[in-house]
Structures are given as C-alpha cells and as structure tokens.
C-alpha cells in the first residue's frame, strides 16, 4: 500500500462545486434563514462556530431526537456529530428530558443545593472514581477553575499542556509550541490577548515522555492538564504505558495530573481513566455528562480536596472568582441526576460500542477494498478517518497529512446524502440511539463519496 493516494485536484474541486450547488437547491429555507440571520447576528449565527460547517449556508435544525436530525427543509439526517459530543447519549434522551421538564415547573435556579445534590455527589464518586466534587456550567469553566485551584494549592505558576490539545475556551491552553525550540509562543489566531499566557504555559508533544520530563524538571509546574487522547486535532491515542509513566513523572516532581475527559467519555463507563485504571489528582468532564444540558463537573482526591479547603480557609475573605451564579442550578442537577442514573451505565455503553463496531468494520472493509492508505483511529464509541498512513503519535503527525479540501468534500458529500459528521475533522460518534440503519446510511454515503472522488 502506498503512503499517499493520488487525487485529481480538478476532480476534487468539481466535486465540491457540485455538492455546494446541490445543497443550495435542496435547502431553500436554510438559505433564506441564513440570509435573514445575517442582519442580526455577528457572523450570521448565534455562535460563530456554527459557520464552521462546509455548507454554503448554515443548516438550520427543526428537530433532533436520538441519533436523528431534521432540518427546516424537512430532510432527515443520521447524526454522527451529536452536537460535537454534547449529545453523545443521543438528542434529548428520555430520562433527562423528563427530569428537565419536571424540574422546569419546580424552579430553575436558587443558588442553594437541590435536594438531589447528596445523591449526585455519591453517584459522581461511584461512576468516575474520585471522592470529592464541584460543578460548573461548562468544561471550559471547570478547566479554568481547576487551573486556579492547582496554582493556589501548589504555589506554582506554570501549567503544562500537550501540543494539539483541546480544553475549550481557556486562555491558558490556547498557546502553541515553538517549532524552533522547546518554548511556547502566542497563538496568532487567538484574538484580544493582553496577558502573555504562553509565558506560563509549557507545551510539549503528546506521547513524548522525555519532553514532559524536561518541562517538569524545575519543580515549578502546578499541573499537567491533558486529554487522555488528543481528540480535536485528529484523534491521537496514547502509546502503551504512556500515562502510567507520565503520572509517575508528575508525582516525582510534585505536579498535579488533571485529566479532561469531556471528549473521552466515549471510551467506556467512567471515561478513559476509569476504564484503564488510572486515578488522576483531578478530573474534568462537560458536554455530555448531564445528557446535553449545560453542566460540567470536576472531581479530586481527598488529599487535593483538603489542600483546596485549606487554601480557601486561609485566604482573605471575599469573592474567589471560582464559580458562577448559575453553577449547579436546579435544572442542571436534575439533568445530571437522571444522566448518572440512566445513561452512564454498562447497557448504554454496550449499545454505543456495538454500533461503533459495525461502523468500524464497514469503513475498514472499504479502505482495504480500494487499498487506500488512510487510517481509522478509534476510542470507544468515537472514531476518526484520518488521511494518514498510520495512527498519529502527536500533533505534528496530523499536521503533515492535513488535506482541508478533501475533508470538506467528505463532509459536504455525506451531508447531502443525509449524514452529519463533526465539521472540524473526520470524527464519527455513535450514541445509544445509533442503529443499523444509521450505520448503513453512512457507509452508503461513504461509498458515494469514494466513487465520486476516485
């Protein structure tokens, strides 16, 4: 098998033009709503990320349930994006929808603990393996709060992240590795930066234990904040034994290990760490943790909790800035309670994994039949088609094989055939509601794309 496949650039551009025109013809209401929204929203959408899809106009959603979307033009879609993981358990899972509907009539927010809070705390400990917890509204918030706590209890200024990581809209993590050396540099795409976050965040290549050792050696790093596998810069899994050694390095240098499992919850019940027997000092999850209702959680060991309480008790009185008014509101608690009881279960994950098994098998068959030198990388119910000859080890491996036009053609061709992928890369996620018909629809659309492309 060759390391690359020759794709005629003219054929690729013709395919893109044809699919863009197809979208415009078949989505007149979305096109009209896009034009109307341009008058009142900056960038034409309520969140500017929503314009990152490859469609010539935004696709407006009318209804979403389970693994299905319906757009305003009446077209149905098999959804493998699932709100970029927010709807990993399916759109509006029944137990969560019922809990939210009931709680909406009983009070939305009081800035007081809901009667289910104690039960939720117990279930968080049981599901994810850490004894002490706090809530946030989003994973971005939770990561910000954890970074603050880590610096407070260690009295150290520095943070380590991995090149290609994703931890939401956290300024401390939006920095780049200096390609000319071992330092970090300001990320040019980040707008409005005043503070030199790159001066206090060290960026090292993923799966590089030597680089991690060097970053921790001076004893000034408060925390390593990491995804167990890179998930938003191409799916990059850890090498065997990487995390055991990395944790030992953190312990040797007095650095806290923080795992952000917002995307790796797809691995299995309890996420990647619980599935693989790793116990970090702190653990973060958002997006799907409460079934898609805005909510995030962060947990810690008893030792870290004691240090947090000591830091807070010995600080001067006043607002700490670690939390927001709507955090742990009654609506989020109701959703989290239902999700922990009904969704974070072996039966749920068995259904997700079964669909992922079928999808992986079908895609691999097609790659092998055409001897295509592309890789399918999988993490539980999540997988990604990557235009690389082998599973990447770090972000540089992904960068070397980026093909934006090819990726765009995949997304747009599948969308026009009723299949939605995450817009940022070739990621596919299976929910408990994903069934044989959804998988077959994706595989047929994938066949159509390969036929048109090759």
UniProtKB/TrEMBL annotation:
InterPro entries, per the entry: Aminotrans_3, PyrdxlP-dep_Trfase, PyrdxlP-dep_Trfase_major, PyrdxlP-dep_Trfase_small
Enzyme class name: isomerase
Keyword terms of this UniProt record: Isomerase, Pyridoxal phosphate
Molecular function GO terms recorded: glutamate-1-semialdehyde 2,1-aminomutase activity; pyridoxal phosphate binding; transaminase activity
Pfam families for this protein: Aminotran_3 (PF00202)
Highest rank taxon of the organism: Bacteria
CC cofactor: pyridoxal 5'-phosphate
E.C. no: 5.4.3.8
Family under the similarity heading: Belongs to the class-III pyridoxal-phosphate-dependent aminotransferase family.
Name listed for the protein in its UniProt record: Glutamate-1-semialdehyde 2,1-aminomutase
Species per Swiss-Prot/TrEMBL record: Tepidimonas ignava
């Amino acid at each position: 098998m060759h390391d690359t496949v020759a794709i005629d650039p003219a054929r690729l551009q013709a395919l893109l033009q044809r699919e863009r025109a197809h979208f415009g013809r078949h989505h007149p209401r979305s096109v009209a709503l896009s034009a109307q929204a341009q008058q009142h929203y900056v960038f034409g959408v309520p969140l500017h990320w929503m314009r990152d899809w490859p469609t010539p106009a935004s696709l407006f959603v009318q209804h979403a349930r389970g693994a299905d979307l319906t757009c305003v033009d009446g077209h149905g879609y098999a959804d493998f994006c699932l709100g970029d993981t927010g709807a990993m358990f399916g759109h509006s899972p029944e137990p969560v929808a019922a809990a939210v509907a009931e709680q909406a009539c009983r009070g939305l927010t009081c800035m007081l603990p809901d009667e289910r809070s104690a039960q939720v705390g117990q279930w968080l400990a049981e599901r994810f393996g850490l004894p002490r917890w706090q809530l946030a509204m989003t994973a971005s918030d939770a990561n910000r709060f954890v970074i603050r706590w880590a610096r407070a209890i260690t009295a150290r200024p520095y943070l380590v992240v991995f090149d290609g990581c994703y931890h939401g809209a956290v300024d401390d993590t939006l920095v780049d590795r200096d390609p000319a050396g071992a330092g970090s540099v300001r990320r040019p795409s980040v707008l409005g930066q005043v503070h030199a976050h790159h001066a206090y965040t060290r960026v090292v290549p993923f799966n590089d234990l030597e680089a991690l050792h060097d970053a921790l050696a001076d004893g000034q790093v408060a925390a390593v904040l990491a995804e167990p596998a890179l998930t938003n810069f191409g799916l990059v899994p850890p090498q065997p034994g990487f995390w055991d050694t990395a944790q030992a390095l953190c312990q040797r240098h007095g650095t806290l290990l923080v795992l952000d499992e917002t995307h790796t919850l797809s691995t299995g019940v309890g996420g990647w760490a619980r599935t693989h027997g790793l116990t970090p000092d702190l653990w973060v999850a958002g997006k799907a943790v409460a079934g898609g209702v805005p909510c995030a959680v962060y947990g810690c060991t008893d030792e870290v909790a004691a240090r947090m309480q000591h830091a807070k008790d010995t600080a001067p009185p006043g607002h700490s800035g670690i939390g927001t008014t709507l955090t742990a509101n009654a609506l989020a608690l109701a959703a989290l309670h239902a999700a922990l009881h009904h969704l974070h279960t072996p039966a749920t994950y068995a259904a997700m994994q079964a669909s992922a098994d079928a999808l992986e098998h079908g895609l691999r068959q097609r790659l092998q039949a055409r001897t295509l030198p592309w890789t399918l990388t999988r993490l539980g119910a999540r997988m990604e088609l990557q235009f690389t000859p082998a599973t990447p080890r770090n972000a540089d491996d992904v960068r070397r094989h980026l093909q934006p036009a090819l990726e765009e053609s995949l997304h747009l061709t599948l969308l026009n055939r009723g299949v939605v992928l995450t817009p940022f890369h070739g990621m596919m996620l299976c929910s408990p509601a994903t069934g044989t018909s959804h998988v077959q629809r994706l595989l047929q659309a994938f066949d159509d794309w390969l036929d048109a492309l090759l």
